[in-house]
Protein backbone atom coordinates (compact mmCIF):
# COMPACT_ATOMS: atom_id res chain seq x y z
CA UNK A 1 0.00 0.00 0.00
CA UNK A 2 2.79 2.43 0.90
CA UNK A 3 4.68 1.45 -2.24
CA UNK A 4 1.61 2.20 -4.37
CA UNK A 5 1.25 5.65 -2.81
CA UNK A 6 4.94 6.43 -3.39
CA UNK A 7 4.66 5.34 -7.04
CA UNK A 8 1.59 7.54 -7.52
CA UNK A 9 3.37 10.55 -6.01
CA UNK A 10 6.35 10.02 -8.32
CA UNK A 11 4.01 9.75 -11.33
CA UNK A 12 2.24 12.96 -10.32
CA UNK A 13 5.55 14.80 -10.01
CA UNK A 14 6.62 13.57 -13.45
CA UNK A 15 3.25 14.64 -14.86
CA UNK A 16 3.59 18.12 -13.37
CA UNK A 17 7.06 18.49 -14.89
CA UNK A 18 5.71 17.40 -18.30
CA UNK A 19 2.81 19.87 -18.03
CA UNK A 20 5.15 22.81 -17.34
CA UNK A 21 7.49 21.86 -20.15
CA UNK A 22 4.80 21.22 -22.75
CA UNK A 23 1.55 23.09 -23.00
CA UNK A 24 0.01 20.42 -25.16
CA UNK A 25 -3.67 19.82 -24.24
CA UNK A 26 -3.62 16.12 -25.22
CA UNK A 27 -0.79 15.37 -22.81
CA UNK A 28 -2.61 17.20 -20.03
CA UNK A 29 -5.82 15.23 -20.67
CA UNK A 30 -3.92 11.92 -20.68
CA UNK A 31 -2.19 12.84 -17.42
CA UNK A 32 -5.50 13.78 -15.79
CA UNK A 33 -7.02 10.46 -16.92
CA UNK A 34 -4.04 8.58 -15.49
CA UNK A 35 -4.36 10.43 -12.18
CA UNK A 36 -8.10 9.64 -12.01
CA UNK A 37 -7.44 5.97 -12.74
CA UNK A 38 -4.76 5.83 -10.05
CA UNK A 39 -7.09 7.45 -7.52
CA UNK A 40 -9.83 4.95 -8.38
CA UNK A 41 -7.38 2.07 -7.97
CA UNK A 42 -6.25 3.37 -4.57
CA UNK A 43 -9.83 3.81 -3.39
CA UNK A 44 -10.78 0.30 -4.51
CA UNK A 45 -7.74 -1.18 -2.77
CA UNK A 46 -8.63 0.65 0.44
CA UNK A 47 -12.25 -0.52 0.23
CA UNK A 48 -11.16 -4.11 -0.38
CA UNK A 49 -8.79 -3.98 2.58
CA UNK A 50 -11.53 -2.56 4.83
CA UNK A 51 -13.91 -5.32 3.72
CA UNK A 52 -11.26 -7.97 4.39
CA UNK A 53 -10.54 -6.56 7.84
CA UNK A 54 -14.26 -6.43 8.70
CA UNK A 55 -14.80 -10.02 7.57
CA UNK A 56 -11.81 -11.20 9.59
CA UNK A 57 -13.16 -9.43 12.67
CA UNK A 58 -16.61 -10.95 12.16
CA UNK A 59 -15.20 -14.44 11.64
CA UNK A 60 -12.97 -14.26 14.71
CA UNK A 61 -15.77 -12.94 16.91
CA UNK A 62 -18.14 -15.70 15.77
CA UNK A 63 -15.46 -18.33 16.39
CA UNK A 64 -14.80 -16.93 19.86
CA UNK A 65 -18.54 -16.89 20.65
CA UNK A 66 -18.92 -20.48 19.47
CA UNK A 67 -15.97 -21.58 21.60
CA UNK A 68 -17.41 -19.79 24.63
CA UNK A 69 -20.80 -21.42 24.06
CA UNK A 70 -19.16 -24.84 23.73
CA UNK A 71 -17.20 -24.25 26.95
CA UNK A 72 -20.39 -23.20 28.75
CA UNK A 73 -22.20 -26.31 27.47
CA UNK A 74 -19.32 -28.52 28.58
CA UNK A 75 -19.33 -26.87 32.01
CA UNK A 76 -23.09 -27.39 32.29
CA UNK A 77 -22.71 -31.03 31.27
CA UNK A 78 -19.95 -31.49 33.84
CA UNK A 79 -22.09 -29.87 36.52
CA UNK A 80 -25.00 -32.13 35.57
CA UNK A 81 -22.76 -35.17 35.70
CA UNK A 82 -21.39 -34.11 39.07
CA UNK A 83 -24.90 -33.42 40.32
CA UNK A 84 -25.98 -36.81 38.97
CA UNK A 85 -23.05 -38.39 40.75
CA UNK A 86 -24.12 -36.69 43.96
CA UNK A 87 -27.65 -37.92 43.36
CA UNK A 88 -26.20 -41.33 42.75
CA UNK A 89 -24.43 -41.03 46.09
CA UNK A 90 -27.78 -40.22 47.63
CA UNK A 91 -29.09 -43.29 45.90
CA UNK A 92 -26.36 -45.30 47.56
CA UNK A 93 -27.40 -43.95 50.94
CA UNK A 94 -30.99 -44.93 50.22
CA UNK A 95 -29.85 -48.39 49.22
CA UNK A 96 -27.90 -48.70 52.46
CA UNK A 97 -30.96 -47.62 54.45
CA UNK A 98 -33.08 -50.18 52.60
CA UNK A 99 -30.53 -52.88 53.32
CA UNK A 100 -30.52 -51.95 57.02
CA UNK A 101 -34.32 -52.08 57.10
CA UNK A 102 -34.28 -55.50 55.40
CA UNK A 103 -31.72 -56.75 57.92
CA UNK A 104 -33.86 -55.47 60.80
CA UNK A 105 -36.91 -57.20 59.31
CA UNK A 106 -34.95 -60.45 58.98
CA UNK A 107 -33.78 -60.16 62.58
CA UNK A 108 -37.39 -59.59 63.65
CA UNK A 109 -38.45 -62.70 61.73
CA UNK A 110 -35.68 -64.73 63.36
CA UNK A 111 -36.75 -63.55 66.80
CA UNK A 112 -40.35 -64.48 66.03
CA UNK A 113 -39.26 -67.92 64.88
CA UNK A 114 -37.22 -68.36 68.02
CA UNK A 115 -40.17 -67.23 70.06
CA UNK A 116 -42.42 -69.70 68.24
CA UNK A 117 -39.89 -72.48 68.69
CA UNK A 118 -39.56 -71.74 72.38
CA UNK A 119 -43.33 -71.86 72.77
CA UNK A 120 -43.40 -75.26 71.15
TrEMBL record:
Residues 1-69 form the Cytochrome oxidase subunit II transmembrane region profile domain. The keyword Transmembrane applies. Its main location: membrane. It is a multi-pass membrane protein. The keyword Transmembrane applies. GO terms for biological process: electron transport chain. Keywords: Membrane, Transmembrane, Transmembrane helix. InterPro entries: Cyt_c_oxidase_su2_TM_dom. It is found in: Membrane. GO terms for cellular component: membrane. Residues 66-120 are annotated as: Disordered. The chain crosses the membrane at residues 5-20, 26-59. Residues 66-83, 92-106 have a biased composition (Acidic residues). This is Cytochrome oxidase subunit II transmembrane region profile domain-containing protein. It comes from Halocaridina rubra.
